[in-house]
Design a protein that fits this description.
By secondary structure, this protein is mainly alpha-helical. It is 60% helix and 0% strand. The protein has one domain.
């Protein structure tokens, strides 16, 4: 998860904002539209490491039953590029799961605890 750790705070959304998306495709488009930095499709495709044609196919997929596939590593890069969590929040909300984000301090503590545990395991 180093990519997400490097980008800082991610924007989250209210239930009312998430209600604007009725389908996965809607949520995906809103993820891009709510990007903190506006980019061309070509620029976004480069950050996602997909071709511009592939990104256009994903964003133009109107079939709500069979949305264009976005691999997990591309999804992580999409979150990093847009600096928001619209799509993952929307998906979790559909399953009744709430999102709890760690503060930068909490993330640093968790990182240090993991490093400490790793050092202890090597010393044992």
């Amino acid at each position: 998860m180093p990519l997400l750790a490097e980008i800082g705070e991610l924007r989250t959304f209210t239930d009312a904002e998430l209600d604007c998306a009725e389908t996965y495709h809607d949520a995906l488009l809103l993820q891009v539209q709510h990007s903190k930095v506006k980019r061309s499709r070509r620029s976004l495709a480069g950050l996602l490491r997909v071709s511009t044609a592939k990104l256009s196919k994903i964003l133009n997929s109107e079939d709500a039953e069979i949305p264009a596939h976005i691999p997990g590593d591309t999804r992580e890069r999409l979150i990093a590029a847009t600096q928001n969590l619209f799509l993952p929040q929307w998906e979790m909300r559909r399953f009744g799961v709430s999102l709890h984000l760690l503060s930068p301090e909490q993330r640093r503590i968790a990182q240090l605890e993991a490093e400490n545990a790793s050092l202890r395991a090597r010393a044992a």
